[in-house]
Amino acid sequence: MKGLWLAVGALAAPVGVLAQTPQRAPAQHVIVAVPDSMTWGDAPPVLPAGAKAVMLEGNPMKPGPFTLRLSFPDGYTIPPHYHPTPEHVTVIKGTLLVGMGTQLDPMKFNELPAGTFGVIPPGMRHFARAKGDVIIQLHGTGPWRLIYVNAADDPRRSKPAS
After folding, report:
1. In sequence order, what are the residues at sequence separation of 6 or more whose Cβ sits closer than 8 angstroms to the Cβ of residue 108?
2. How much is the pLDDT for 35?
């Protein structure tokens, strides 16, 4: 019995030492993005042409948190698609029209005015259109993917002839 207690004591000793070792806090960086200083560029090629984007935090194509703003001109449309992870959307400017389903149906649009926040669950088929000039903010945990219901809608499939 004494041997058992010695073995338990020997195993517990390192745990006590580890519990007392101070842990280093991860390096923290303050991120501040002032609208006038944001540099907009073309949106990722998975989106139809005409959208602009600015990365505020992280990289949506890599594991980890990201925050991305997208700007759409009036009438800009994203055909039915889904994401394998939750999509967190905040409407910053304008009105985003969003509908659920596998077919783009303007009768199913819901108006999301500036200030609206929504979360679309993984796998939910949906589509969107800009009513006026629209800016949205997406945030989540990457890698972020957009998968079109109809593969022919994917703008990466239609490359200009060279």
Report:
1. 99, 100, 101
2. 82
12: which residues sit within 8 A by CB, 6+ positions away? none
- Res 33: pLDDT: 78
| CATH class of residue range 51-148 | mainly beta
Q: Kindly state the tokens that stand for 75.
A: 């009438």
Residue 18 pairs with which residues in a beta bridge?
A: none
Per-residue pLDDT for 155 more than 90? Answer: yes
Q: Within 13 A of 151's CA, how many CA atoms are on the CB side?
A: 1
| Phi, then psi, of 63 in degrees rounded to 5 | -60, 140
Residue whose tokens read 């303050």: 30
Contact 109, 96 (CB under 8 A): no
**For 85, how many CA atoms within 13 A lie in the half-sphere containing its CB?**
16
